[in-house]
Amino acid sequence: MFLQTARLLLRPVTAADVDDLFLIYGDPATNAFNPAGPYPHRLHAESVMGRWLAHWQANGFGNWRIALKTAPDETIGFGGLSLSRYADVEINNLGYRFATAAWGQGLATEFALRAVRCGFEILELGEISAVVRGNHLASRKVLTNAGLRYVRDIHDVPDAPPSLLYTLTRDDWRGG
């Protein structure tokens, strides 16, 4: 499932994306709000990529590789919709991470809006959620701009402050 926005190209991830995955997810700056920290080595990225590919195979949707239309061969991030479990909550999770060079340009919001639209119009999901750390103000703003609203705290990381669960239903999206 290939998608695009005014500035972005989204395509399903492939095994060939693992080096870019490690570059972005292994960067300490992109993990400033991630309690698990950056990926420690390329093998970890390979393992994650394997799970992402299996999710696409099993569900027909998952994470996309994100590039600018003006530079289609350069990966600027990854993001998508996936079935996930956080603490006691099973959700259709909206997730994303962008290389630092892509920050501050509204690209995450542009991506999130397109992913939400895909989730409701193409995948016909009833609800889309996201989990974010409370101190990650930029990501919280992206979620709010994409229409998601804070629902409750969830305790998904032992010995850490709770994460925040944001959600948008298809009915609310249609009405918004």
UniProtKB/TrEMBL annotation:
GO terms for molecular function: acyltransferase activity, transferring groups other than amino-acyl groups. This is N-acetyltransferase. The keyword Transmembrane helix does not apply. It comes from the Bacteria. SUPFAM superfamilies: Acyl-CoA N-acyltransferases (Nat). Pfam families: Acetyltransf_3. Keywords: Transferase. InterPro entries: Acyl_CoA_acyltransferase (IPR016181), GNAT_dom (IPR000182), N-acetyltransferase (IPR051531). Residues 7-149 form the N-acetyltransferase domain.
